[in-house]
Amino acid sequence: MMQGRLSRLRRMTIDEGRWRASELARTVGDRARARLTTPRWHREDIGRVLAADVLDAAMRDALARQDWAAVDGLLADRLARRQARCVIDPSLAESMRHEVSSRWPDADDWPRAKPLPGACSRHRQTRIDLSRSCP
What is the rounded average pLDDT of the residues 66-93? Predict the structure, then answer.
């Protein structure tokens, strides 16, 4: 896995590296602000906005006790376990690799850096590397 990340880093342009570094700094800053500042919303209102399937007994109990750390943990757990809505779901990487390989047996031999036909300059490296699953 580390070798794959190093390989990806070597292929990264200066502009992409600069953009990724600025996004990482922004993300770290946002997370620090979220932990250190008082929310502008009332935590007690969260029970009224959550979907019914999220409000299980454990969540209702944590809300009733105003145990915000438990509420946060339960929400994080729910988000981690829910079905992904993203096309590229890391938990499906291995089954996706198998599906692609079964449909197109020569897929592992496709050139990895060759752009797809009609790809714009921003999306030159758009082929899926089937030799390993996503992290």
Answer: 81
